[in-house]
Amino acid sequence: MNDYSFSHLLEGDSKVKKNRPKYNQIIDAAVIVIAENGYHQAQVSKIAKQAGVADGTIYLYFKNKEDILISLFQEKMGEFVETIRQKTAGIESAVSKLFMLVETHFLLLSQNDPLAIVTQLELRQSNQDLRLKINEVLKGYLQVMDEILETGIKQGEFRADLNVRVARQMIFGTVDEVVTNWVMSDHKYDLVALSKTVHGLLIAACGYRQ
What we know:
With about 210 residues, this protein is an all-alpha fold. It is built from ten helices and no strands. Helix 2 (about 20-35) packs across helix 3, helix 2 (about 20-35) crosses helix 5 (about 65-90) and helix 8 packs across helix 9. The longest helix has 27 residues, at about 130-155.
């Protein structure tokens, strides 16, 4: 994975908690319950029932429901970043790396409808403090985008005066909005099929010319 550590978001023995067998079981259950009921209506007891554990077991791993949501996003985004890094590891071209990022982003969320609902809808309804923590978790993913953009500039694929920060915001904002529209439309079209079109728009904006 990347050098950015998410560990500061969780207090205490987070590494120990993650190694316990029911941790991921609860995380996966939380994704389903929050997607079906909404964050505010997703009671801890419902998550426990979905996970097949006692209510009290939840509190051996998490402080409260907010901690579950942050941990959920941390875990899933960590897996997201790791998958993208693995898929782009052997690719030299920044343009090709960016296509793989876009396609993988769409593919992973299209294959996990509950997670797509949570990331695109439920996380947006959280309070400001929670959103700040979520933004911290996103930094690892944004770093991957920065690295691709910097590689593209260095290799002459993107314009030399490209503002990496603005370009990264454009890339994330675009793929994020495309997924949100797909979720809101109740998946009426093939999300992954949009990868080539979205990628073409992004690289053109970065100054790529064939």
